[in-house]
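Handout, tutorial session.
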Amino acid sequence: MDIAPTVPDLHRRIPQHLARRFAQICASMLAEIPAPFGAPGWHFALLRQIRETPDLDRNGHATALGSDATSTGKALEMFEKQGYVLRTPRPGDRRANTYAITPDGEALFHELAGPVRAVASRILSPLTDAEADILLALLTKLVNAHEEHARPGGGRRKPSRPKKPT
């Protein structure tokens, strides 16, 4: 499938620019899925993470998703209030909680899984199956290799504070 290029030649060898554009495209396409719980698309990834690793606490889920603990905690709180997850104190450390998906959460997961897979297919549709596999493998390799830089808020400018008059 040939697509007219929209990325200027001067940006085609700059991975940061391409990655930012690709992230925008992915987020935009994922946002087309109406979330029945009124939450951003990354919350589906959290629901899946809880489903697959119910023994993790808030910080563990945040780390697995590359999200900050505060945003993850708010999402977990929302899921709990809506009956999608059950919070249980961690045995041996009652300050931490683990989260498990409830039957309502499992139903929501299955309701959203098809549309999320459809978006993934649309995102990868310009590629052959072999190209899609290569792209995903290369993206995974890059993320794994640079994980120490994958922190929420990383790369943002520090807030500027006005200088006090002297």
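The second record follows below. Compare its token runs with those of the first.
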Amino acid sequence: MLRITLLLSLVFISHASHALTLDSTPVPGGIAVITLPADADPATARYRDRKVLVTRNDGNTLAVIGLPLATETGRHYLKVKNRQGQMQSIGFQVEDKAYEEQHITITDKRKVNPEKRDMERITRESQQIKTALRHWSAQEDVVVTFRKPVEGPTSSPFGLRRFFNEQARNPHSGLDIAAAEGTPIRAPAPGTVLDTGDFFFNGNTVLLDHGQGLVTMYCHMSKIDVTPGQTLNSGDILGEVGMTGRVTGPHLHWGVSLNDARIDPLLLLPEEAHSPTLSAETTP
């Protein structure tokens, strides 16, 4: 694991306005930090044909790449053009990471095996959420030093291989934080509200755009206090913790997406903000 201190500013700006200690963790669900060649055109940097977040640090240009949970181990490549328009490939190694299993009992069986009448809604909502998570905005100053959106222990870590009523489902793509219903949820960094909604699985949900493909999601809320297009500062209230959607108790599901890859939110928190984890047989 490589620890790099980044001074966060877009490559087109000469000064830096945020300091960040970031772990380069090239594993499925992690982040790879790649130094670009001096003659690279940062605006052309792509991983899997998607734009990536680019910053400056100590005279170097760095690409910060989100790695999906389904990423295979082995050699991967960031592609970028030089100033003459020639394509270059920069290789990096992705290592394996083993995530634990979690077995959860859901009493509402429709939330495990939806009925035919539910599927049209689920399909529509899935596309709405995917559109928001793929959003890109060319923001000049991206803050990636996050604060926790709500205080509380971790009830389900990121990446768990999940089984609902002993049926295998997709890995856990976010971080669940246990908190009492009605607890305020705060923006972890400045951002703009991309979308909100009441979804079949996620319940009341807010999605925030932080710039350059960095998007966060907040689910199972009891109350939403923001509207799409609203600009927020770090610490502004989004709404309140609840237990809407597919849950077994009140908690916040907090997701982080970088270049449309779901990554572990803990990677963007200072180590002192990490909370203890409850037993695996807890809130989904």
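Points raised in discussion: Helices lie at 116-133.
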